[in-house]
Specification:
Blueprint: E1 5-18, E2 24-47, E3 51-63, H1 66-73, E4 78-82, E5 85-94, E6 100-108, E7 112-113
Antiparallel strand pairs: 1-2, 1-4, 2-3, 3-6, 3-7, 4-5, 5-6
Length: 114
């Protein structure tokens, strides 16, 4: 049996806007802080002809609460801050008994020249 590790995370509200020039912007504000079971952390790098692209995946398990229900229903409006990085919610799996939900989150770093 694997050891469960619980770590602090922050859940953020995201709001999207557009400047007078048509530039897209995303504003992030803290909604609440909690602890989540962290597992299946994966780091990946893909090297193309000119660039390196880093992408990371992590799985957070949280207890099912009204706040989590709101996140599940509007995944694009929330992000997670963990270890100082912002993670976007890619996929959600609710437990059949609605006791927990698993949030599969991704983080893409900017493209870096080789």
């Amino acid at each position: 049996m694997a050891i469960a590790r619980f770590e602090n995370i922050s859940v953020n509200n995201l709001s999207f806007g557009q400047s007078a020039f048509g530039e897209q912007s995303t504003t992030q504000s803290l909604w609440f802080q909690t602890r989540a079971r962290v597992h299946s952390v994966a780091n990946n790098v893909k090297i193309t002809d000119k660039y390196r692209v880093y992408s990371d995946v992590v799985d957070f398990t949280l207890n099912y609460t009204p706040n989590l229900k709101t996140i599940i229903d509007n995944q694009n409006a929330y992000s997670i801050t963990w270890r100082g990085f912002d993670w976007r919610i890619d996929n959600v799996r609710e437990a059949d008994d609605r006791m927990t939900a698993r949030l599969l989150c991704v983080r893409n770093d900017p493209v870096v020249a080789v």
